[in-house]
Design goal:
It is a single chain. The protein is of the alpha/beta class. The protein has 13 helices and ten strands. It has two domains: about 240 residues, Aspartate Aminotransferase, domain 2 (3-Layer(aba) Sandwich); about 120 residues, Aspartate Aminotransferase, domain 1. The strands form two sheets. Strands 1-7-6-5-4-2-3-9 form an eight-stranded mixed sheet, sandwiched between helices. α4 links the parallel β2 and β3. α2 runs parallel beside α9 and α3 crosses α8. Bound molecules: pyridoxal-5'-phosphate. Pyridoxal-5'-phosphate (PLP) binds next to α3 and α4. Pyridoxal-5'-phosphate binds next to α3 and α4.
Length: about 375
């Protein structure tokens, strides 16, 4: 009798206490626990250095308590009239939607490219009139990077403001345009981890300064502003990253390159094993293999096949997830007004898209077990 296998969908890799120790010692010494402390500043400058190496513009980094809050504050920093229409792709995590609503705007759910699964400038161009959009919250879906230069050109030519949600794209998404805020997550499930946390990268210092101010309730701390220090100039939030989270983030950054290489190697092997086992019958998101993948999603060909796969995996204790489903327009009506444009391609993708287990801890035997099951499913035509 074969033993039941158990393979979790995700298994976070977070720095252990040995790696955290020196950073925690520094917090003890300084007795500075939040409010733009030294570890937060160090994390921001080390991140800025990384992004700077891939850009000809000077880039700033501002941390936030999560990517969700980073998105919300980046949208607020655009200072659009309340109730503005904001384009969002149908296939993304719900935080993309909630950020728009909490920033006081109306999400306009739109379609994605059938191959890259991304909202592209061409798709956005086609819905400018119909959507009456003032901005777009564009997503680096499943970590697949967006073209910041193309979006910057779109922004300049249309006047529609762009924010990029690159929550899971650290290491693959660079910021080559100077005028677009790009938001990353440091949630425990990502490759760069703070436990909870996020950051915004942007070439416009005024935008990052405003996001920092909004993350501290909106209090003006700038003696050169036309406003007394301590006065509110905006109704912000408390979205500051604590020193403890920055400690985890710094320790995670120390080992990130080695971890990214491991993630990439495992992903490439996993993909090859699945393709070999299934005779190339599964469909992948187009684009390069990511610098540090943290999920693995495939299309299996039909909703019946997906259900069959889910059933077998559940029986064997193998985690699966219909990532980013329901699609954004399929959530409860009471969350607020959501405008739904044509989403034919996203709807099709959502019929058979499924996330399989992926982590740095997955073994070659487990990958083979999963590939054998996926093959059984995709080659079954009944
Ligand atoms: C596309 C996208 N946006 C936003 C978020 C939210 O990030 P956080 O958990 O840091 O708020 C996620 C989280 O996975 C995500 O995948």
């Amino acid at each position: 009798m074969s033993l039941p296998i158990s393979i979790p969908l995700l298994l976070p890799q977070v720095p252990d206490r040995e790696a955290l120790w020196p950073y925690l010692g520094r917090i003890d010494e300084k007795r500075h626990y939040s409010n733009f402390g030294p570890l937060v500043k160090e994390l921001e400058s080390r991140l800025a250095e990384r992004f700077q190496a891939h850009s000809s513009h000077t880039l700033q980094v501002v941390t936030t308590s999560s990517a969700t809050l980073g998105l919300e504050l980046a949208l607020s920093s655009l200072d659009l009239p309340k109730g503005s229409h904001i384009l969002v792709p149908a296939l993304t995590f719900v935080a993309t939607l909630t950020a728009v609503i909490h920033a006081g705007h109306i999400p306009v759910v739109t379609d994605i490219d059938p191959a890259s699964w991304l909202l592209t400038p061409d798709i956005a161009k086609n819905v400018i009139k119909e959507s009456n959009a003032k901005a777009a919250l564009v997503v680096a879906t499943f970590g697949q990077p967006q073209d910041t230069v193309a979006w910057s050109e779109f922004q300049k030519s249309t006047g529609i403001r762009i924010v990029i949600d690159a929550a899971g794209a650290f290491g693959s998404q660079w910021v080559t345009a100077s005028d677009i805020p790009v938001v990353f997550s440091m949630h425990a499930t990502k490759s760069l981890v703070a436990g909870e946390g996020g950051f915004v990268v942007c070439g416009d210092g005024k935008t990052t300064a405003l996001i920092a101010q909004l993350s501290n309730f909106g209090i003006n701390l700038n003696p050169d502003a036309n406003l007394p220090v301590g006065q509110l100039s905006y109704a912000g939030s408390n979205a500051k990253l604590s020193e403890f989270h920055a400690a985890v983030g710094l320790a995670s950054l120390d080992s990130w390159d080695a971890q990214a290489e491991k993630r990439q190697t495992i992903y490439a092997h996993y993909r090859q094993t699945l393709d070999d086992a299934c005779n190339n019958a599964i469909t992948w998101q187009s684009g390069d293999i990511l610098a540090a993948p943290n999920t693995l999603s495939i299309r299996v060909g039909s909703s019946a096949k997906r259900e069959y796969l889910e059933r077998i995996c559940a029986e064997k204790g193998i985690g699966t997830r219909r990532w980013y489903q329901p699609l954004l327009h399929q959530h409860a009506k009471k969350i607020g007004p959501v405008i739904h444009l044509d989403t034919t391609e996203a709807d099709k993708i959502a019929t058979d898209l499924i996330g399989l287990p992926f982590s740095v801890f997955i073994t070659t035997e487990q990958i083979q077990q999963i590939a054998d099951i996926v093959n059984k499913v995709v080659s079954n035509n009944h």
